[in-house]
Design goal:
433 residues, five-stranded antiparallel β-sheet, four-stranded antiparallel β-sheet
Length: 433
């Protein structure tokens, strides 16, 4: 096993969380994307903490320990945490190495012992009276203590000291309860002052979304919806629901949509705190990259456009068309909040103009442009095909009886016209581009 220990000396101050436990557990959830074995320990003052992540089983998945350490270090920096990372084959050894200035990464028990031997005895995590007794005996280095017979140390200071030294060197097991991810996600940050501009919320929101992304990756899931709650003093909180067209777990996308919503928001009162909440999750939607571009990538770009339009204009302002079971062309569709299904868009994207069959003049395929209110016209001189009888609508007292034709206009355009058999008048229903 190979343990990464992350020392966070200013966790409580830098996290903006309500308490140290919430702060370290949010960071533990973020670390879960790298390993399922995560453990932490808060220091006595609760201002700092130690966070352990076992990366021996997953380092090859991320390209080796060097690449993985760089990604974790870069992520912690982006989150705004002051941190020191160390790597060792034992959790206690990794924790001790976070307190030295250099050579914080060792990979075998032999390398760990060689690194510990020249270090000061004061770095050992033991009772003050034991350290004072060892120093009174003239011992100054960890290597001098390790050279003493374990039986003599146990008789003098008890078996706990020898067990601690064996665990430090990786010679004895050091079982630690694995921290588990919560079933729902709630993260909250408090501000030390009142924020009166939504732009000032973007920096703490970016941190919350990055932690949220790590949680989603750790659970291997995505979301279709999450909520931002803006807390005010002695006023009800303002809730912003962020919805997506397809499952996602990318913090950059979340921030982009949240920025659009916040840009339109007028704050009813200054903001004292910000909370992110997600209660429902779904399977991830991962698109395989293609050199030439695939229908799935086009669908993803289309869904991103829809999400941005909804975030900026509102859900009610972005609508699609849905077919209805009615033969009357002007009533064969209706407005719908559902833009289109994933399957229908994928099928549309998969078809290319080069393989589509041109529409011959005699077919009954409908034109691309239909008039909601048919336009009265004089009898067309050139009819190319028809008639096609449409007789319907008796059940809603708007019944029609029409003969439809494909005609040629004076400018050569193909027109879809009909003759109303009730009075013999002619109308333009649609045209082809």
């Amino acid at each position: 096993m190979l343990w990464l220990c992350i020392h966070l000396p200013q966790l409580r101050h830098e996290s903006q969380a309500a308490n140290a436990v919430e702060a370290i557990e949010r960071l533990a959830a973020w670390c879960y994307q790298w390993s399922s074995q995560v453990n932490y320990r808060l220091e006595q003052s609760n201002a700092s903490a130690l966070l352990w992540v076992e990366i021996g089983a997953s380092r090859e998945l991320f390209g080796g320990h060097g690449v993985l350490l760089k990604r974790i270090d870069s992520g912690l920096t982006d989150l705004g945490y002051t941190h020191v990372c160390a790597l060792a084959p034992s959790p206690l050894g990794a924790a001790l190495l976070t307190r030295v200035q250099r050579q914080r990464c060792v990979f075998t028990p032999a390398q760990l012992r060689m690194r510990l031997e020249p270090l000061s005895l004061t770095l050992l995590d033991m009772a003050p009276e034991i350290g004072y007794a060892l120093q009174s005996a003239g011992l100054q280095r960890i290597g001098q203590v390790l050279a003493l017979p374990p039986a003599a140390l146990a008789r003098r200071f008890g078996p706990q000291l020898t067990l601690y030294l064996r665990r430090l060197l990786g010679q004895a097991s050091d079982p630690r309860p694995a921290w588990q991810l919560p079933p729902v996600w709630r993260a909250r940050c408090e501000f030390g002052c009142e924020l009166r501009d939504t732009t000032a919320l973007l920096f703490p929101l970016q941190r919350l979304l990055q932690e949220f992304q790590g949680y989603l990756r750790g659970r291997d899931c995505s979301v279709l919806r999450f909520t931002l709650r803006l807390e005010h003093h002695q006023r009800p909180a303002s809730d912003l629901a962020i919805g997506l067209s397809a499952p996602a777990r990318d913090a950059a996308l979340f921030l982009q949509l949240a920025r659009e919503r916040l840009h339109q928001l007028v704050l009813p009162a200054p903001v004292l705190g910000l909370q992110l909440e997600a209660l429902e999750f779904t399977a991830p939607s991962i698109v395989q990259q293609d050199f030439f571009g695939s229908p799935a990538e086009q669908l993803q770009q289309f869904q991103l456009l829809l999400d941005r339009l909804r975030a900026r204009l509102g859900n009610e302002q972005v609508q699609g068309l849905a077919a209805t079971a009615d033969h009357r062309p002007e009533r064969a569709w209706q407005m719908s909040r559902q833009i289109a299904s994933t399957r229908s868009i994928s099928a549309l994207s998969a078809s290319s103009p080069s393989t589509s069959t041109p529409t011959p003049p005699g077919t009954s395929r409908r034109p691309c442009f239909l008039k909601l209110d048919p336009q009265p016209i004089p009898p067309p001189p050139h009819l190319l095909s028809g008639p096609e009888r449409i007789e319907s609508g008796w059940w809603d007292r708007a019944d029609v009886i029409r003969d439809y034709y494909v005609a040629r206009g004076e400018d050569g355009a193909r027109l879809w016209v009909f003759r109303d058999l009730s009075d013999g008048s002619w109308y333009l229903q649609g045209l082809w581009s």
